[in-house]
């Protein structure tokens, strides 16, 4: 058992990207934030499934070429091998929870960003 506080961690890209509160041994748990106009490289995972739960704001998540616009309270489950691309073309910050499981040290394969 352990307890952490999100204020003890930083977003990967300063004011955006994932902020991992836990990495392994069985799953990753992160807060993810995107400022207006920011995006994250399209990618897929070979083994891990990924989930996003939108806490605040609105975000576009493209999965295998299909655009999904999600907002507060929405949840999306992404299977291994499904290419996903996250972008925030809106005028407010989006904050969401991300889980990845089962834990793999390296499992991200970058793909080409879709054009929208």
A few lines on this structure:
This protein is an all-beta fold. Helix content is 0%, strand content 52%.
Helix content: under 10%
Examine the coordinates and then state which fold CATH places here, giving the name of the CATH topology: Jelly Rolls
Strand order of the largest sheet: 1-2-9-4-7
Shape: globular
CATH-assigned homologous superfamily: Jelly Rolls
Number of helices in the DSSP assignment: 0
- What's the N-to-C terminus distance? 43 Å
Query: What value does the average pLDDT take?
Result: 97
Structural overview:
The protein is mostly beta strands. It has one domain (14-103): Jelly Rolls. The protein has strands at residues 17-23, 28-34, 39-45, 49-56, 58-63, 66-71, 75-78, 84-87, 94-101, 108-110. The strands form two sheets. A five-stranded antiparallel beta sheet has the order 1-2-9-4-7, with no helix packed on it. It is globular and about 40 Å long.
List the helices and strands and how they pair.
Elements: E1 17-23, E2 28-34, E3 39-45, E4 49-56, E5 58-63, E6 66-71, E7 75-78, E8 84-87, E9 94-101, E10 108-110
Antiparallel strand pairs: 1-2, 2-9, 3-8, 3-10, 4-7, 4-9, 5-6, 5-8
Keyword list:
52% strand; Jelly Rolls; 116 residues; 5-stranded antiparallel sheet; 0% helix
């Amino acid at each position: 058992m352990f307890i952490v506080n999100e204020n003890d961690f930083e977003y990967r890209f300063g004011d955006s990207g994932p902020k991992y509160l836990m990495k392994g041994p069985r799953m990753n748990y992160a807060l993810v934030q995107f400022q207006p106009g920011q995006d994250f490289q399209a990618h897929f995972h070979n083994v891990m499934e990924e989930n996003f739960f939108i806490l605040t704001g609105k975000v576009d998540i493209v999965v295998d070429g299909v655009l999904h616009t999600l907002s507060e309270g929405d949840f999306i489950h992404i299977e291994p091998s499904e290419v996903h691309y996250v972008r925030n073309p809106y005028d407010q910050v989006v904050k969401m929870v991300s889980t990845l499981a089962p834990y793999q040290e390296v499992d991200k394969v970058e793909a080409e960003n879709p054009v929208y």
